[in-house]
């Protein structure tokens, strides 16, 4: 019998319909215990009826309808356009209803594009991967032959429909096997390679995992509690915080508290890779506050996304700012929120990356008297966005509240970051003050290496080899940060030579070359496809798993790990614009140990000065 999630269906926020109960029971009966049946899974607010998954078989998505034959009809056809209509019980009038086939396709596509985007990246290189997920619509009060006849004019090759006579065990088993939902799938190796089972559980399951260990998330500082209390009165707050000062944690608490009060909450960041981290924080805290307030499902009131997921540029497939033309262009935007209900509480993280126009876009989908919190760190302004003026945020009163203390960054790293800010005259902000407990600083060793590109790569290789031999260093706690994907490929070659597993936040060089070969002669198509596959890797990037992380500094913004290795080689454009912000951001990702391999002549003097001032040690392989 299949594993059921949740195991107690009485805990679901919505009572199951007769059809949902019947199909759930039938699936649990015909599937063995290698399968998981998710009922009313979250899926970031989309809420499909049922999803089934087995790591060596595949995935099925089911939409369930309890309509009797006389209460629904299809007007039109697939070629000329159609709409689904349902007869109202009270008035008998026909009204438009969401088409169940379009609904299940939306779930299917959302998994590929947003929830498990690594699948979308794999699909770009192999169209057959789309068939890993099968979609079904079950009509509980129709026989299969009847409903197939009724929908024949709109059914596409990817959707399957069946009625009550096909949930008999023999028929249902045959139905699933004919759609390749059986053990020994040709996608089994791919699913294992990308860790699909864990990713899916993270995207779909009730947020119970990790709930027993949230004490560290509840230890807010006096200043953080003051900000949360201030919100109750002023409703709109701007927070300027140093790296590691707990801005994201503060937003997560605000989101969870508001959701437990049954408010509709939207949390928005700019960095694609940060979304997974915020989702995890929000889910865990929502469970805590929801339990206190008797609202166990309050996390369903929260949607987390990056700006370009919510508002899609009509003519763009890119997610990150890359040049001035892109910053300034104005395209039609479509609200892609899963829940179109006006937002009660708007929370923006990494606000230094936002343009005023983007904040206005978000304000336009809010209730008139919405609550608002805007968090930023101007020293991490690696995209060069102008500071958003106070008058751009209606009813924002007074100066920004400041968080100066960092409980993540060790004292030695804070000293280096502050020296960099003073040395390069970064934007005026208060220096970061490390509040990390003394024992957290005892084993910190920070090193600086100046050298050529080749010398820096060799020093990095030696350090990674030594780090991974030390039993005290877990591979999962090591991140290598680079300025460009091209440099990232060189780092990947180093790890391949050392036979070390790694998780990149970008496509492989081989995948990149394959796309260029496939679309040879069409530079725009190549650029769009590279953006698309790279976006999938960024969105799929997470801290779980036992692999070394490789990422651009841009994509790692907001994250942190124990051992940070920064291969610093800014290109000409980065050197001329925001290289000091880029280095500052890379340095402040470290929770414990930091090594900078500087291949840039622009920062050689800074590195030597930092060593002379005692802000960082000279790397053992560095020879002046």
Can you give a write-up of this model?
The protein has 624 residues and is of the alpha/beta class. It folds into three domains: 3-204, no CATH class; 215-403, 3-Layer(aba) Sandwich (Rossmann fold); 411-505 and 541-618, Rossmann fold. It contains 23 helices and 26 strands. The chain has a seven-stranded parallel beta sheet with strand order 22-23-21-24-25-20-26, sandwiched between helices. A hairpin with a 3-residue loop joins strand 3 and strand 4. Helix 1 (18-30) packs across helix 5, helix 2 packs across helix 3 and helix 3 (117-125) runs antiparallel to helix 19 (523-540). The longest helix has 20 residues, at 274-293. It starts with a strand and ends in a 6-residue tail after the last strand.
Write a brief caption for the model.
The chain has 624 residues and is of the alpha/beta class.
| CA-based shape | globular
Average predicted local confidence, pLDDT: 85
- What does the largest sheet look like? 7 strands, parallel
Strand content: 15-25%
The poorly predicted ranges are: 206-212, 313-334, 438-442
**Share of helix among residues?**
25-40%
The radius of gyration computed from the alpha-carbon positions, rounded to a whole number of angstroms, is: 26 Å
Amino- and carboxy-terminal Cα gap: 67 Å
Question: Helices and strands in order, then pairings?
Answer:
Layout: E1 3-5, H1 18-30, E2 36-39, E3 50-54, E4 58-65, E5 72-77, E6 81-87, E7 94-97, H2 100-115, H3 117-125, E8 133-139, H4 144-151, E9 159-163, H5 169-178, H6 188-193, H7 196-204, H8 215-218, H9 222-234, E10 236-241, H10 247-260, E11 265-269, H11 274-293, E12 302-306, H12 307-310, E13 311-313, H13 324-328, E14 333-335, E15 343-348, H14 356-363, E16 366-376, E17 401-403, E18 405-406, H15 411-424, E19 433-434, E20 446-450, H16 453-469, E21 478-482, H17 485-497, E22 502-504, H18 509-518, H19 523-540, E23 548-552, H20 553-556, E24 561-568, H21 572-577, H22 579-587, E25 590-598, H23 604-612, E26 617-618
Parallel strand pairs: 1-2, 4-8, 8-9, 10-16, 10-17, 11-12, 11-15, 15-16, 18-19, 20-25, 20-26, 21-23, 21-24, 22-23, 24-25
Antiparallel strand pairs: 2-3, 3-4, 5-6, 6-7, 13-14
Helix pairs in contact: 1-5, 2-3, 3-19, 10-11
């Amino acid at each position: 019998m299949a594993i059921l999630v949740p195991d107690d269906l009485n805990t679901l926020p919505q009572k199951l319909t007769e059809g949902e109960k019947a199909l759930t029971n039938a699936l649990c009966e015909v599937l063995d215990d290698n399968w998981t049946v998710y009922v009313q899974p979250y899926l970031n607010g989309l809420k499909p009826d049922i999803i089934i998954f087995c790591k060596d078989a595949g995935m099925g998505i089911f939409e369930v309808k309890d309509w009797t034959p006389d209460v629904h009809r299809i007007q039109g056809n697939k070629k000329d356009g159609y709409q689904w209509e349902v007869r109202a019980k009270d008035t008998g009038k026909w009204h438009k209803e969401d088409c169940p086939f379009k609904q299940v396709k939306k779930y299917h596509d959302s998994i590929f594009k947003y929830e498990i985007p690594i699948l979308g990246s794999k699909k770009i290189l192999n169209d057959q991967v789309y068939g890993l997920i099968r979609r079904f619509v079950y009509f509980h009060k129709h026989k299969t032959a009847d409903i197939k006849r009724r929908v024949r004019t709109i059914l596409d090759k990817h959707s399957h429909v069946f009625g009550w006579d096909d949930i008999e065990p023999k028929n249902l088993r045959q139905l699933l096997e004919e759609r390749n939902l059986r053990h020994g799938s040709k996608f089994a190796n791919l699913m294992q390679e990308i860790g699909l089972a864990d990713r899916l559980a993270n995207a779909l399951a009730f947020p119970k995992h990790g709930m027993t260990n949230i004490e560290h998330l509840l230890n807010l500082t006096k200043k953080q509690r003051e900000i949360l209390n201030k919100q109750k009165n002023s409703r709109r707050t701007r927070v300027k915080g140093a790296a590691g000062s707990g801005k994201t944690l503060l937003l997560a608490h605000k989101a969870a508290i508001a959701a437990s009060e049954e408010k509709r909450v939207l949390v928005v960041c700019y960095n694609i890779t940060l979304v997974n981290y915020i989702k995890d924080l929000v889910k865990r805290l929502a469970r805590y506050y929801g339990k206190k307030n008797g609202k166990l499902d309050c996390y369903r009131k929260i949607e987390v996304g990056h700006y370009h997921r919510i508002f899609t540029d009509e003519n763009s497939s890119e997610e990150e700012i890359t040049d001035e033309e892109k910053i300034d262009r104005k395209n039609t935007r479509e609200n892609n929120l899963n829940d179109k209900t006006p937002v009660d509480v708007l929370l923006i993280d990494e606000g230094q990356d936002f343009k005023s126009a983007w904040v206005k876009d978000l304000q336009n989908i809010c209730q008139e008297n919405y609550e608002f919190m805007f968090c930023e760190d101007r020293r991490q302004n690696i995209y060069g966005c102008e500071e958003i003026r106070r008058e751009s945020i209606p009813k924002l009163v007074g100066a920004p509240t400041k968080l100066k203390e960092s409980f993540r960054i060790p004292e030695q790293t804070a000293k280096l970051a502050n020296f960099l800010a003073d040395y390069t005259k970064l934007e005026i902000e208060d220096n970061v003050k490390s509040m990390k407990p003394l024992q957290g600083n005892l084993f910190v060793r920070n090193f600086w290496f100046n050298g050529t590109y080749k010398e820096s790569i060799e020093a990095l290789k030696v350090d990674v080899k030594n780090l991974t031999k030390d039993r005290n260093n877990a591979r999962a706690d090591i991140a290598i940060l680079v300025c460009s994907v091209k440099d990232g490929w060189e780092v990947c070659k180093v790890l391949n030579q050392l036979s070390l597993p790694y998780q990149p936040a970008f496509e492989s060089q081989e995948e990149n070359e394959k796309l260029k070969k496939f679309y040879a002669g069409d530079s725009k198509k190549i650029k769009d496809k590279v953006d698309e596959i790279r976006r999938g890797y960024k969105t799929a990037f997470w801290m779980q798993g036992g692999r070394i992380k490789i990422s651009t500094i841009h994509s790692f913004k907001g994250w942190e790990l124990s051992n940070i290795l920064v291969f610093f080689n800014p290109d000409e454009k980065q050197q001329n614009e925001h290289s000091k912000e880029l280095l500052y951001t890379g340095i402040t990702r470290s929770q414990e140990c930091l090594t900078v391999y500087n291949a840039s002549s622009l920062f050689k003097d800074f590195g030597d000065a930092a060593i002379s001032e005692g802000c960082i040690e000279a790397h053992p392989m560095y020879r002046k």
